[in-house]
Amino acid sequence: MLAADLDTSLHARFDALWARTVGTPGAAAWPALDAGYGAPERHYHGWPHVAALLAGHDAVREEPDFAGLDADAIDLAIVFHDAVYDTARADNEARSADLLRAQAGPAAAEARICAAAAMIRATAAHGPSADPATRLLLDLDLAVLGAPPAAYAAYAAAIRREYAAVPEAAWRVGRAGILDRFLARSRLYQTDLFHDRLEAAARTNLAAEVDALRAGPT
User: Fold this and answer.
1) Vertex 36, ends 166 and 149: CA angle to 5°?
2) Fewest C-beta atoms under 10 Å: which of 33, 81, 162, 211?
């Protein structure tokens, strides 16, 4: 559940965004979002994660590299990108994009909705993108990797709680493998701004978590 002030501010922001981009009241789409982001098992991928990405976007949207991008399309992608999140499935991003299009109704064919849906699908692999808006969305989504150590530790612990059904030994092997693949990339962040600000800290955080996972329980 969200704190009342965060719930109010997010709801109002979504209503305004939906009215601008889809042209219908946001009240009809909000319950479908809240069913996911408001679920008690969303220890990390809940409304606070959405709020953090929106705040991160607000902080950089006027930067010269990003000022010409479609900010509303990016915000739509942020709001819907983890709307469907089932730790037992591998198609959450596609289903989240489909949810956006379904909720948009007749507006689903419009270029902005299509762009937002494509950005959401890109979060499945977090791979290199030729699209500047997608690169920004992906970097916003990975910004937590470059957070201060305590915030990163809280993130990692929240992810573990979301995968509580996975046995500890399997978790350590699987999670370390995922982080290894990130560390093997030449760049974690695709935009120069995020790379310059967060790359070094993110690599330090990831390497420390990998070491802890391979060290075993303390």
Assistant:
1) 60
2) 211
